[in-house]
Amino acid sequence: MANAPAKTPIVDVQNVVKKFAVGNTEVTILKGISFKVYAGEFVIIVGPSGNGKSTLLNMCTGIDYPNNGAVLVTGENIHDMNANRQSLWRGKNVGIVFQFFQMMPTLTLFNNVMLPMELAGKYSGKERKERAEYLLELVQLKEQMHKLPSMVSGGQQQRAAISRALANDPPLLIADEPTGNLDPTSAGLVFNIFKKLVDEGKTIMMVTHDKELAAQVSRQIEIVNGKISRDEFRQRQDWAGS
């Protein structure tokens, strides 16, 4: 494993253990996971199903919690916060992209992107509108922005979900199988947006089973049987022309 730069990590996972009760049995799904992610990295987490990849991402957002160990994000132990403080912290520091889009069905794409800014009380009313329009234009959805999610394709909903995740300009973007429900063309468009964001300095952690996409990034963390079996840094493939 390459030497990490001597600076504060965006994500610092420290000896995390996660257990679940299955009937009368306790199952340990993560068994002392530790790693750091630094600003500007694109980290893909891979491994067989049922090995805790999504659980790990949820702990990095504060949605789930470890039984032992700690998860520091943007320098804060997010599991030491009460629910209200954690919600406010999450809204400003982490953008989340889900596999199943999770768009508000009664709101237009434009209003879906506006919503996180309104909840966080960030930006003025005019700035929110300008930013929502800018972010939808960034993902090539300006012409669709006043449509409801049900009126656009799955790929377009996922691109709108990326705009929503970026609404408050968070330092960290977390994506759980964001291309899992998309056709190859739409998956490629979504992944190209991620690559552009990383080139512009965003930090992304993403779970995927797509080996072709995973091969394009410079770092993969593989989880097998609840432990990190591989944390691999390598030369990133050339993204030019993608």
Give your account of this protein's structure:
This protein has 242 residues and is an alpha/beta fold. The protein has one domain: 3-Layer(aba) Sandwich (Rossmann fold), CATH 3.40.50.300. It is 32% helix and 27% strand. The protein has helices at 53-61, 83-93, 109-120, 125-138, 154-165, 184-199, 211-214; strands at 11-22, 25-37, 42-46, 68-73, 76-77, 94-97, 172-176, 203-207, 219-224, 227-233. Strand 1 (11-22) and strand 2 form a beta hairpin. The mean pLDDT is 89.
Q: Please indicate the percent range of residues in DSSP E strands (runs of 2 or more).
A: 25-35%
Shape: globular
Number of domains: 1
CA gyration radius, whole angstroms:
18 Å
Strand order of the largest sheet: 6-7-8-3-9-10
CATH H-level superfamily title: P-loop containing nucleotide triphosphate hydrolases
What is the residue-averaged pLDDT? 89
Poorly predicted parts:
none
Structural class determined from secondary elements: alpha/beta
Specify the helix fraction band. Answer: 25-40%
Assigned CATH class: Alpha Beta
Order of secondary-structure elements: EEEHEEHEHHHEHEHEE
User: How many E-type strands?
Assistant: 10
Short synopsis of the structure:
With 242 residues, the protein is of the alpha/beta class.
